[in-house]
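Q: A reviewer asked whether we had any structural model of the full assembly, not just the individual parts. We don't, so I'm hoping you can provide one. Inputs are below.
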Amino acid sequence: MTGTGSAVITPEAARAVIRRGLAISAVALLGVAAVYVLALGFTPTEARQGLAQKIFYLHVPAAWGAMLAFSLVGIVSALYLWLHDPRLDLFAESSAEVGLAFSAVMLTTGPIWAKPIWGTWWTWDARLTLTLFLFFLFVGYRALRAAVGDRAERARYSAVVGIMGLLLVPFVHVSVYLFRTLHPQPVVLKPSAPSLPWEMLRTLLVSTAAFTLLYVGFVTTRYGIGLLAETKGGDDAA
Amino acid sequence: MPPEPPRNAPYMIAAYLVTAIILLAYAWSLWRRSRAE
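A: Here is a predicted structure for the entire assembly that you could use as a starting point for your response.
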């Protein structure tokens, strides 16, 4: 039994959090499998881009999941600096790790789409460069956590880095408006109505919902693993 | 008659495979860590 902030966590309570997280993750992975069926079997092929356009149904929700994860790291980190609750630090650590997993999907599916459409795997334009920078910033966040031994210092330093990541997220989103870029402009999260046929928008929304649920499941599981490690006297579940 | 869409299915297949591998590998890593604790 150990204290995290004002609450006392038992190993059994931590294991219950893990079980809940794994169950949510399993349901969400089934949801992603359903997205595969929906995208490949029941969504029309775009005339100019061909089948490569269907990468969009994974790339965009993964990007959404990554930005959600990194934004929450920043918000929760700011709350940590205010409240000094270790549970907030553990949540930020969990969300950053899941954000990196989603970023890996975003940063691999993007170039795979770009090659047949742009004729190149990568270009150093604002959206791509800022996204890669955000990814490296959170790789640094993980490295920082691994390098600092004192728990309170580690939480404080990494909270500052997490807030810097949050500040970068809006620039990633508006970079396609601020700079000349090859990257397509938003088709859903924009001031006017979504510019997609209904069948494509439906698949994108279902996929976004599945990736959001997957984020919840992964973060809950990772948070539970961190809690369980704390009950056993360690504070690093990685 | 509308032009035929470009033939680029291998890129789509690669992206769908890579996504499945990353997500399943991370889920597997979480599951293993939850057993190890």
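A: Points you may want to mention in the reply: Chain B touches chain A through 25 residues (CB under 8 Å). Chain B has one helix and no strands.
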